[in-house]
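Build the 3D complex.
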Amino acid sequence: MNNHSVKNSVECWDCFELRLKGPNSGNPYVDITWNVTFHHESREVKVMGFYAGREEYAARFMPDEIGEWTYETSSDCIELNGVTGSFTCTASSSGNHGPVRVTHDERFAYADSTPYHPFGTTAYAWIHQPEELYTATLQTLKNNVFNKIRMCLLPKNYSFNAQEPELYPFEGAPQEGFDTSRFNPAFWDHLDRCIEALLKLGIEADIILFHPYDKGRWGFDVMGSKADDLYLRYAIARLSAYRNIWWAMANEYDFMKEMTMSDWDRLISIASNEDPHQHLLSIHNGTGMYEPGSIFMYDHTRPEITHCSIQHWDVTLVTEWRKQYGKPVIVDECGYEGNLPQRWGNLSAGEMTHRVWESFARGGYTTHGETYLHPQDEIWWAKGGALFGCSKDQIGFLRDIVDKAPNGLRPFSIPRDAPMMGIENEYYLYYYGQHQPGYREFELREDKEFIVDWIDTHKMTITTLETTYQGTCRIPLPGRPYFALRIRCKEE
Amino acid sequence: MNNHSVKNSVECWDCFELRLKGPNSGNPYVDITWNVTFHHESREVKVMGFYAGREEYAARFMPDEIGEWTYETSSDCIELNGVTGSFTCTASSSGNHGPVRVTHDERFAYADSTPYHPFGTTAYAWIHQPEELYTATLQTLKNNVFNKIRMCLLPKNYSFNAQEPELYPFEGAPQEGFDTSRFNPAFWDHLDRCIEALLKLGIEADIILFHPYDKGRWGFDVMGSKADDLYLRYAIARLSAYRNIWWAMANEYDFMKEMTMSDWDRLISIASNEDPHQHLLSIHNGTGMYEPGSIFMYDHTRPEITHCSIQHWDVTLVTEWRKQYGKPVIVDECGYEGNLPQRWGNLSAGEMTHRVWESFARGGYTTHGETYLHPQDEIWWAKGGALFGCSKDQIGFLRDIVDKAPNGLRPFSIPRDAPMMGIENEYYLYYYGQHQPGYREFELREDKEFIVDWIDTHKMTITTLETTYQGTCRIPLPGRPYFALRIRCKEE
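Done.
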């Protein structure tokens, strides 16, 4: 029997790893298959193992039930076959709420039922940067309120992002070419470290598996279906046991001209069928942005797609998308705060914040990004590093309001009125955007008393009105744009 | 022969009126038909006469060619039949450019080819207000830059607009009911006076003939097709000779539930076929505003419709509508600057101005309106009176820029760039809106020198850069929102 040492206790939704020594002959990424089956009472979960380099084979598993789990390996390689063991899954510690799921009522929540509202940001290639910048990025994330980050697994070749990464996911080098059937353990070890660092900060890693920003440089966007599938399965085997993983199958998938729709269908099926931990799964559009009426999106009604990850500048469409797809909606690209010459990268802070509020009030979410010109091209949206803008704080102000709201917020669809998230008779958060009413009339409950706050979403101030309101009432408003109105039932 | 005295000289595009005494028996609005045919060289134009009250029959004609015109009346009433005469049409005086037309290249221009850019405003029921308010409205128009006003012919019963008008277009009164086959001369005389006052101020009167804001009060929205046709023909006979008339067949036509689409088709055909002066003709939508993808508009491709008069809050769609309909586009309702509780009436000044600039830069136009709460409900958008907001001045600032631009501005469609109006190699006006690029790259002509201005569309300042530019160049921009960039070829 293979010698192995593992933890005998893991907390719920943490990663249990089994690591065994094994052969390094041939191509261990392809030639050897090994799986581990975990049991708990009547449950049985099978995970794919992976070759981790240095003659080590690993299998990772995220237990989701407290109690005793046993496991048994199976492999065509004798050294990896028939290994058994057990561990205890203990209650999760504070701050560990498990992975994010979609609830039956089309909202996000952690596995322990704590509501999750994505306040995402974007730093596509932050994992591909030198150590100093990597550290700076984590520091910036620590100092801000973001709880999700969109990030590419494969390196990116794009405006303001032209340097060679230090590590590649595959064996090889730009000059000699890459062997896409062999992975580079150093890269993947680094990726583990990145995801663990995010986990510590309570940040979901929205991992973009494929993207079109290669343009003939490394060839990772045109590897062919066999290599694509191998890569996807390796990513799943390697990363799925981290509870903060989300799968974004591609960014701007429709800009990858070598891929067909059936390629995407196949990859999405693999991710959905073979991810033992059933992480959130999305795919993100590129085309159709500049032609009203010709929006080109993947069929988000497919059952494998857990939520909509949409690129569009008009976030008022969140209402429509929620209705159309019956799933949570994240506008993952609506433009970024910055001053680039490119139109997608030069929104004012006020406009970025406005889009985040507008989509939130409609029951969706908009992801932050920042693209200010920088002397060393250290632009957050690409490389991470520092943030210079104002929307990060304004978004933090919104998050604070949301964190303090009662559980169970739902979007209310009110024809010809401002969008609103609330709970009937308890809590209402209206967002007025460019609208600046001088007052609004409401039908509140007669038998309750309601506290009213004016919220200046740009200046980040909350003004509580001295009067409380009940029944049919006219509530004054400041008559200035970019305000929200919060109406809270006074607790007895 | 009927005694009549008429002017023997009228300037081009002014109103020539022939007025004859005639019988008042029966219903002179219905029982008597009379027409006048005007001749100039090989031209022949037939106009409908109308009963003007006080036993007077009038016929009005707007000559459009300099020289001698003759006329001859024909009628089933002997006193109105066979009257002949002549007058001289003289050159138009300065400030009289004739009626506005649509040019072959889908722009607006006056009949003398002077470009016309609509900077419209809205005061639906201003003609129905007491004398003092009427005078205040004209004073406000005189002090501002608007060159078009949207106004209802029929009185309006709506929020902030509930008083009885002093005069009704038809004989009768609210208590006793109205006879829609008889017109009220006092009302129509007042209307003449209103249109003449606008004419003096150089303002086009965009006359809304039908609207749904009656709601059972006077019944003018449910008169039946016979009365509708009679009313329309009377309006044409009476008003068409004013060069500043535009026909807006209806406001929010689709909110008039008693009318069918074939009613609208018929009315539009009458206006198009029977208006001897062929004024601009549009119809304005109401429905479909709150459901993306379900925009419900009249078929603006119909040849009778000269331009699109659209209600929509998203003025970026101007680009699409221009393409779709091949006609000038005016977004006649996109919301109004104000602080009403109603969503359509509480845009910030900055947002109103933004929509005017955005649509202009896309080759269309957005109409101003103002809806600030007022102690006596004297809200500009309804009754006229005074303006209190800031967008009027910001729109005036744009108009000044446009007036100083060379003739021949066209919208350029630049994928993924800011919208721009310009003339190749001569003049470019880019509008950046919520976008705030730090610089932009341009390919200007090598052999010309270009002057660059930063235009702050909100603060109404123009900053001319010290450097001039030519060839491939990088032009710095202020990196703040709501700026426009003007690039002008330096004159040698």
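The domain at 100-404 of chain B is CATH 3.20.20.80 (TIM Barrel).
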